[in-house]
Amino acid sequence: IESDAIAKVVAVEKSMGEALDKQFELIDVDLRVLGNYNLTRDALVRLNAGFEILGKEGENPSRYLQNAYLTNSQYPVGQRHLADKADDDSYYTKFQSKYHDMFRRFMVEYNYYDVFLLNMQCDVIYSVYKETDFAMNFTGPALNGSGLQLAFDSALANGLSFTDFSPCAPSAGDSAAFGAISVKDKYGDNIGVLAVQLKPETF
């Protein structure tokens, strides 16, 4: 009887391991497809330009975008992804409205918690879900050492990365893991990172 019980546990563990491997394979494919998509490259370039233009115009890009997309959003926390754009005429918002629906549909269809674009200066220049990590920089205390930063650093070093689940402060401390892939220009140089936030229930 004891040997039968042990055999059943081993079988269950093997099945769970195979299911987990399969799920990571699917996420891997999602990242590679979206990360190499021309519109993802275009979005990263355009939104990063919008981020930089705000700075050149004398604004603090992080404060400006958080006010526009979080503080002054017509939608409450948990529904900010429904807004296609903010109520302003910035270059950033012009292209947020162009690319947002594509990333939002990807997030919903493939059951991700969030999708991010990050520039080479460690800024979170885009997020579908628009939590408090949006428009923040990894060098600040809020995100330094976070799962998103670890995924970003590893993706730039290795091309593609996954992190373990850990508490995520911007998501009310809920457990989150991240997958990320470096985004390259036509010359093969890194121009930023595409990242997805994973839900525990996915596994």
Distance from N terminus to C terminus (CA atoms, Å) equals 31 Å
- List how many beta strands DSSP finds: 6
The coarse overall form would be globular
Q: Order of helices and strands, N to C? A: HHHHEEHEEEE
Strand content: 15-25%
Task: Please outline the major beta sheet.
Answer: 6 strands, antiparallel
Structural class comes to alpha+beta
Look at the structure and give the mean pLDDT.
91
**Fraction of residues in helix:** 40-55%
Rg over alpha carbons: 18 Å
What's the tally of helices?
5
Q: Which runs of at least 5 residues are low in confidence (pLDDT < 50)?
A: 7-17
Describe the structure.
The protein is an alpha+beta fold and 203 residues long. 47% of the residues lie in helices and 16% in strands. It has helices spanning 2-35, 38-56, 61-71, 91-109, 147-158; strands at residues 114-118, 124-127, 160-162, 166-167, 175-184, 190-198. Strands 1, 2, 3, 4, 5 and 6 form a six-stranded antiparallel β-sheet that branches. Strand 1 (114-118) and strand 2 (124-127) form a beta hairpin. Mean pLDDT is 91; it is low at 7-17.
